[in-house]
Design goal:
This protein has 1 helix and 6 strands. By secondary structure, it is mostly beta strands. The chain is globular and about 55 Å long.
Length: about 100
């Protein structure tokens, strides 16, 4: 099963790209915080950054309401794509949004 749930902060305003076929895609980064205990029993936090993409109705929502610093809960799936750069194949993994809630 390919299922991702994240709750975090939007790191920068979503970038909206219109593809040659007229469809739009929103791309942005979400920061999540993870709490853990270190070896001395002290509570520590660690940040992780996740690349996210949105299609369809979520692009319209993010165009109108998406902004840096907003809290967001997303549900989606992990996708991997590749592209060529200087003759080299590069891979990118990102979360494709199925549903989102602005918190």
């Amino acid at each position: 099963m390919n299922h991702v749930n994240l709750i975090g902060k939007v790191c920068s305003a979503p970038r909206i790209v219109e593809l040659p076929n007229g469809r739009k895609i929103a791309q942005f980064t979400l920061s999540t915080k993870e709490m853990y205990l270190d070896e001395q029993g002290e509570t520590k936090s660690r940040s992780n950054w996740h690349r996210l993409t949105a299609w369809g109705k979520w692009v319209r929502v993010l165009e109108e309401l998406g902004k840096e610093g907003m809290d967001l809960a997303v549900e989606g799936k992990l996708v991997t794509r590749f592209y060529q750069s200087k003759g080299e194949k590069k891979f990118i993994s990102e979360v494709e949004i199925n549903d989102l809630i602005i918190l």
